[in-house]
Amino acid sequence: MGTVVTTANKEANGSAETNKKFTVVFVLGGPGSGKGTQCSNIVKHFGYTHLSAGDLLRAEIKSGSENGTMIQNMIKEGKIVPSEVTIKLLQRAMNESGNDKFLIDGFPRNEENRANFESVTGIVPEFVLFFDCPEEEMEKRLLSRNQGREDDNIETIRKRFKVYMESSLPVIEYYNAKGKVRKIDAAKPVDEVFETVKGVFAPASNKVAA
Ligand code: UP5
Ligand code: MG
């Protein structure tokens, strides 16, 4: 389950690669729940390639792409970028990676993202790793991150939380109803969270976790 033959979209990725088998895990959770931090750990132990949709969108702004200004404005307002933009970036990154196992971090963020990703790529996630964390803890983490992210100010953080509650949680509920959600208590220290995460990946992996 979860590993499917994609109907790789030539238009979107500009390559002739088709019928590639990709395994995808969606990594979801609120802003600051620790998705990126835990993905770095998972990559080291389990051989996945980490694709943060937010990082891909921020790189697109920096590259001076024609969508850059639109993306920048959406991120500043905590709004969700139209799925065709994000899906193209994800497809390109998957096709260029040389790997066939991906952690897709921070996507899909709403029903439109979810439905379009599945129909355009033909990929259904193996499972959804869900980092559950109280808003108070997430806010504290984001305000002390200090990495110069334009959306790490209290005004934008509140908007991000609202969009998460209204649009992203329903996606997690959708997959939960299908028995695909692996819920992790993300309020604990990083190492303790990773111990729980390992338990989710270890049985499905050929590699032995250190
Ligand atoms: N930290 C991490 N784990 C900790 C722990 N267990 N204990 C204590 N501290 C912990 O962590 C955040 C901070 O907390 C770090 O300083 C870390 O050291 C510490 P991080 O791992 O970065 O959390 P993460 O969940 O990745 O937080 P992030 O801010 O990246 O989540 P968002 O979902 O808000 O951001 P993302 O980059 O995915 O999206 C940003 C914006 O892009 C969105 O708001 C939206 O406008 C746009 N977007 C789209 O439109 N579409 C998409 O598909 C994706 C993004
Ligand atoms: Mg992140």
Structure description:
The protein is an alpha/beta fold and 210 residues long. The protein has a single domain, classed as Rossmann fold. The chain is 50% helix and 15% strand. It has nine helices and six strands. It has helices at residues 10-13, 35-46, 53-62, 68-76, 83-97, 111-121, 135-143, 154-177, 190-201, and strands at residues 4-5, 21-29, 49-52, 101-105, 127-132, 181-185. Strands 1, 2, 3, 4, 5 and 6 form a six-stranded mixed sheet that branches. Helix 2 (35-46) crosses helix 9 (190-201). Mean pLDDT is 91; it is low at 5-19. It binds P1-(adenosine-5'-P5-(uridine-5')pentaphosphate (UP5) and magnesium ion. The site of P1-(adenosine-5'-P5-(uridine-5')pentaphosphate (UP5) has 30 residues, from helix 2, helix 3, helix 4, helix 7 and helix 9. P1-(adenosine-5'-P5-(uridine-5')pentaphosphate is lined by residues 29, 31-37, 52-54, 57, 74-75, 78-81, 86, 106-107, 109, 141-142, 145, 151, 160, 189-190, 193.
What is the straight-line distance between the termini?
26 Å
Q: What is the CATH level 1 assignment? A: Alpha Beta
- Write the element-wise H/E pattern from the N-terminal end onward: EHEHEHHHEHEHHEH
Shape by Cα distribution: globular
Task: Kindly report the CATH topology.
Answer: Rossmann fold
CATH architecture: 3-Layer(aba) Sandwich
Our count of domains comes out at 1
CATH superfamily: P-loop containing nucleotide triphosphate hydrolases
Q: Indicate the radius of gyration in whole angstroms.
A: 16 Å
Uncertain segments: 5-19
